């Protein structure tokens, strides 16, 4: 049996393809109805619909730009939500439920405490997922893990439970630290 | 305060490890043990621990520091015995993690028996060289507190310590206090780097226990053997160490509420 080994991220096109192949792991038996669709200024990776007709916007983010991904996701979800009734008229066979809240699935390499708290504050319809690339013999696979969001009714990732959250804690503020700007400037760059 | 024979009998009878001993230990309440890795000449972390004990005591809880007597204890610690605000330093002749764990458990139970109503902590110095032989020292590693500066090299060393602790005590709760910082953002950034690495590679969350500001009062405290919180109660260092104490005690209270 080949040894599993974590590897760095894949080129975006390849990552895109492999994540799409694992769409079922997001739960709800998602069916992709649009791909690489130009939405609110930028491209939406996937728009999918589940068996109940709830629409999901799925975005694949870039490492280190997770907060931007959340903001983009909100804009794209608003853009999609505003068009659902039109799409239902154009393609009634899709079975869209325009009244249902659009799920927002954001996929990144890692989400820090701030990003997770922001997503949780936005409510249940925002889910953060992390992806990791694993070499399994000659091939590379992508594993998806839930970082935040409601429990999935669909199949879960094969990896252990998603990493727990480590959040920095302090109620102190910089003024309470007692260092003036001039004092702090003495050390900057050191 | 009346004490039952069961509270003290283990001081007089030889320990026989087995179900009956384990059951007795489980029945006797004990203060929480926090292991803190501190190197042989690491006067800075030793000073943090000592000052933290004083702040815990000042907050109304019992705080005892337990350290191995071997080596140059004089450079690390003040004189053993009761110190400011009722905090206490106890030296033990333990020469390995197993003995140190037994000493810590006995101390935690004894101090809990003395003040059964209040919360309490036993902060135990763990010589890093002993960590690889920690298989029989679960009590010392159930909760570990690590101090790190934002310096990259220090973060790497701290991460290595996290990894070592996780390898010998997978269920350990690992807390991080970032010291030597000049802003809250600097502390947050250092913690985030460490936590991200731990979550990604070890699948382990870290618990934040605030920060200790880079303050000359801390270094004066080390040199003068004075608790910074008492000598300079309004100093930024006192506030930040006091917050670390409050975070620790807050977690203990939450755990107690959860039963």
| Structural class designation of chain B | alpha/beta
Shape of chain B: globular
Number of helical segments of chain A?
A: 6
Structural class of chain A: alpha/beta
Give me the CATH superfamily of chain B: P-loop containing nucleotide triphosphate hydrolases
CATH secondary-structure class of chain A: Alpha Beta
Strand order of the largest sheet of chain B: 1-5-2-4-3
Structure description:
The complex is a heterodimer of chains A (190) and B (259). Chain A is α/β, with parallel strands linked by helices and 190 residues long. Helix content of chain A is 28%, strand content 26%. Chain A has helices spanning 12-21, 66-81, 84-90, 113-122, 174-177, 181-187; strands at residues 4-7, 31-38, 43-49, 55-60, 103-108, 126-136, 139-146. In chain A, strands 1, 2, 3, 4, 5, 6 and 7 form a 7-stranded mixed sheet that branches. In chain A, strand 2 and strand 3 form a beta hairpin. The termini of chain A are far apart. With 259 residues, chain B is of the alpha/beta class. Chain B has one domain (28-258): P-loop containing nucleotide triphosphate hydrolases (Rossmann fold). Chain B has 11 helices and 8 strands. Mean pLDDT of chain B is 84; it is low at 1-28. The interface between A and B is medium-sized, with 22 and 31 residues.
Helices and strands, with pairings:
The complex is a heterodimer of chains A (190) and B (259).
Chain A: E1 4-7, H1 12-21, E2 31-38, E3 43-49, E4 55-60, H2 66-81, H3 84-90, E5 103-108, H4 113-122, E6 126-136, E7 139-146, H5 174-177, H6 181-187
Parallel strand pairs in A: 4-5, 5-6
Antiparallel strand pairs in A: 1-6, 2-3, 3-4, 6-7
Chain B: H1 5-8, H2 19-27, E1 32-37, H3 43-58, E2 62-68, H4 73-76, E3 81-82, E4 88-92, H5 97-114, E5 120-126, H6 138-141, E6 143-148, H7 152-168, E7 173-181, H8 184-202, E8 207-213, H9 216-224, H10 228-231, H11 236-258
Parallel strand pairs in B: 1-5, 2-4, 2-5, 6-7, 7-8
Antiparallel strand pairs in B: 3-4
């Amino acid at each position: 049996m080949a040894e599993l080994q974590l590897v760095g991220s894949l080129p975006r096109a390849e990552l895109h393809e492999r994540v799409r192949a694992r769409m079922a792991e997001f739960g709800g038996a998602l069916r992709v109805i649009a791909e690489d669709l130009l939405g609110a200024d930028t491209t939406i990776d996937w728009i999918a619909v589940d068996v109940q007709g709830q629409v999901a916007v799925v975005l694949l983010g870039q490492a280190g730009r997770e907060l931007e991904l959340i903001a983009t996701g909100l804009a794209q979800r608003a853009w999609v939500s505003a068009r659902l009734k039109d799409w239902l008229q154009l393609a009634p066979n899709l079975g869209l439920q325009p009244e249902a809240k659009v799920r927002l699935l954001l996929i990144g390499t890692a989400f820090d405490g701030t990003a997770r708290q922001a997503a949780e504050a936005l409510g249940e319809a925002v889910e953060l997922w992390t992806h990791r690339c694993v070499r399994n013999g000659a091939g590379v696979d992508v594993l998806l893990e839930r970082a935040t969001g409601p429990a999935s009714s669909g199949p879960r990732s094969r990896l252990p439970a998603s990493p727990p959250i480590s959040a920095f804690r302090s109620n102190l503020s910089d003024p309470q630290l007692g260092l003036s700007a001039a004092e702090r400037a003495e050390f900057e760059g050191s | 305060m009346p004490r039952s024979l069961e509270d003290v009998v283990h001081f007089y009878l030889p320990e026989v490890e087995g179900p009956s001993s384990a059951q007795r230990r489980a029945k006797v309440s004990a203060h929480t043990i926090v292991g803190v890795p501190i190197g042989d000449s690491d006067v800075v972390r030793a000073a943090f621990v000592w000052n933290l004990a004083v702040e815990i005591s000042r907050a109304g809880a019992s705080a005892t520091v337990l350290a191995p007597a071997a080596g140059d204890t004089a450079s690390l610690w003040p004189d053993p015995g009761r110190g400011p605000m009722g905090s206490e330093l106890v030296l033990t002749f333990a020469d390995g993690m197993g003995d140190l764990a037994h000493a810590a458990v006995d101390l935690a139970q004894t101090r809990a028996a003395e003040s059964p109503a209040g919360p309490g902590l036993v902060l135990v110095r763990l010589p890093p060289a002993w960590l690889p032989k920690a298989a029989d020292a679960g009590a010392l590693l159930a909760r570990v507190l690590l101090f790190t500066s934002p310096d990259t090299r220090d973060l790497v060393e701290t991460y290595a310590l996290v990894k070592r602790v996780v390898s010998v005590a997978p269920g350990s709760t690992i807390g991080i206090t970032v010291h030597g910082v000049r802003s809250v953002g600097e502390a947050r950034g250092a913690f985030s780097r460490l936590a991200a690495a731990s979550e990604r590679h070890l699948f382990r969350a870290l618990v934040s226990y605030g920060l200790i500001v880079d303050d000359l009062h801390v270094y004066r405290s080390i040199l003068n053997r004075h608790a910074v919180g008492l000598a300079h109660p309004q100093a930024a260092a006192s506030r930040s160490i006091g917050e670390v104490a409050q975070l620790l005690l807050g977690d203990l209270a939450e755990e107690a509420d959860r039963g």
